[in-house]
Structures are given as C-alpha cells and as structure tokens.
Amino acid sequence: MRAATAELHGAAREVSALADGFRAGQDRDGSVPGAGPDDIALLRAIVRRSADALLALGAERQLAALRSDTDAWIAAGLHTAPDFGATRDSFAPPGRDELAFFVGCALTTNSAPPVGRRMECFLVRRREPREIDVLAEFYPHPKNNCQSVVLLTGSAGFRSGNCLVFFPENVPSSRPVESQSYALFFFNKFRRIHEELAIPPAGRIMVDRTAPAASTGLRPDVCYDARSVWGYLHDYHHHQGRWPLDENVALKTNWFVGLLEETKVDAKTVLAAVDDDRVPFRDEQIDMILLERLVRYPRSRVATRNFDAGTGVFLYSWFRERGGIGVTPGGLRFDRAAAISALREYVREIEDLEERVSTPDLYRSEAISYVRRYLREGEDRDRFAFSPDQENLLLHRSAAEDDQLVFADGEL
Fold first, then answer.
1. Cis amide linkage into residue 140, ω under 30° from 0
2. What is the DSSP letter of 171?
C-alpha cells in the first residue's frame, strides 16, 4: 500500500513538472501560439504519466476522457483554444479520506500570474472536519457538493499564489456547466495566506487595536477546520431563499448579482456565528471573514478587476455609512458591534430585493443599481474604481504583500 501511494505521489509530481513546462508556452485562452512537434510530444508525455496516477486510483473513465480531449485538441491544432469538457465531466470528487487526481486545462483564479486556462494538475486528499457532521444536524445541507481537501502536490497554478478553489466552470469547454457537481477547496493553503496577507496589513491600517484578531496564530489543524466550517455555512446560505444558487447559476454568476450574493452569504455566515452558540469556531470564523473581505481581497494589485476585491470594497463602504468603520488621522477604527448591526441591515435589504424582483432581468438591473451606489465604474477592463475614501484600504502597503506565495510539497 505504501509503495503504491509513493508511486502515485511520484507520478503526480512528475506530471506537475511536465504541466509547468507545457503551460509556460500557453496563451491566456490555453492555446499554444506557434505550436510544433515538441509541444505535441510534451502533451502526450503528460497524458502517459497521468495514466499511471489515474489507473492507480481506478479512474479509468477520467483517463479515457483525458485521452479523448487531448487527441481532439491535437487534431484541431494546439494553436486553437482547448476543450476539456469530457475531462471536466468525468472527474469524480474524492470521498472522505480518499485521494483524487486531476489533469487538464483549468483557470486557477487568484493564482500567481500569468493566469489563464493553462495546463494544470493536482493530487488531493479529502479531509472533512468532524465539526461539520455536528453542524449539519442544525444546518442540514442536502445539496452540499463542496469538498474540503488537502492539496498534496500540484502544478504552478495550484501550488503558487492564492488559488483555493477548483470548480467545473474553471475548465474550458464549449459546453456550459449545467450544474456544479463538485467544488474542491484547498484549505490547507489558507492559513499561510491569511497569516501573511490579511493579518499583518490589518494591523497596519486599523488603529487602537480594533483589528479583528481571533483568527491570529491558529494551529494549522484548527485553522483548516475553522475555514472548512466557514466554507460549509457559506455554501449552505447560497442554497437558501427565493433564488438559490444551484437553480440560478447563470444569474448568480453575473458580476453584479454575484457581488451582492457573495457578500450576503458571508454576512449570514457571520450572523450565524454571532447568534448560534452551536456553531464551532465562532470567533475565528467571524474574524477570518472580516479580514479576508475587508483587508486581503481589496489589497490585491489587480483589485479593480477582481471579483472578491469588489465584495470587500463594497462592504467597506457599507460599514462606513453605518459606523462599522471610522476614519481617523492614524488609520481606520473598526467597530465590531456597529459592523454586526450593519450586516443585519444588509441581509434584510438584499432578501427584500430578492422577494421584490420577479425575473432574472429585473434582478440584474436592481443589482447593477445597488452595487453602483458603492462602487463607481472603472475604466477599460476595470470592474470598478476606488474612491478617495476607499483608498484608505490600501494604506501602508509592504513589499511582502506583492510576493507570490509558493507552497512546497512538504509544506502542503
């Protein structure tokens, strides 16, 4: 068993190295400009070594799909954009404590640049905290399709930067995703991201020790479990109400509607932790959410083109209007009680909006108007522009914030 596991890990590491070589020649859409015989040979080598990993896991259907997708791409010419729809649809998420391996083109959001639909792979083990089993008794979520996983090794898109997720819609295909059958979250990466990119800048921009601090200095296992519980509640709230995500995927992935939705479900997750003492890791979750939304996301160098950053800047202005954040000569003062009250008001308003609108078109129209009250239009490809007040979120940058995190296999 150990020998088989070691061989599987070895195959995954070799495929990661091959994928890194291939992805370096790809354009943003996954095409390989000026592709030649060497590129075809490298792609075939990726498939051959991937077969060892997939067969070891009993993933014959996934291997057949991978071969079909790569053969079709080679036949069309690697200078064309890839289509890995069969690979996407054949991937089976791991059961508890089981392993899964993916290889194919995918968009690794929030990863180290250059980001695009490039060749990627990962080997993961699923680890669901026992606290989620207890939580599910009070917050039953039969539609749950999320998997908390430990990233064991992977290509550069998953190994470097802040990519924490893998969704079916990240895989390029001419066929749209009809329903999201899996959603993998690499939560073992989260602690270092949070400790290095959220907590230090929060301490620099928030004065009088008002920065949320309950998520600071957590043991790796505690941080993983707390983040997994946040993920469970976040997804649970996505599937509640009049416009549940699974029944309205196209609507809820609209940039404006999605921004209201993401902010709403995190607000409801915070409020569940505030109000219900059955929720585990209550304080840790609250402060993780606040620091990620208000501090880490908006401080991205590509914030004005980043969806998560938009949610954080939006939430900042919502808090500013309601006393949750004040501006002083020394920096920002966070008022926890006022912020919680503001989140309650926000949830009421968005749920009222959802009851009021009768069609997706009306929802989109209302969402655009609502978001534009707090986020002004950007230029060119920018989704929004920072106002002078919102630029308070960008104060006291350090050079470390621009460093790309790289996760070694042993660290993962």
1. no
2. S
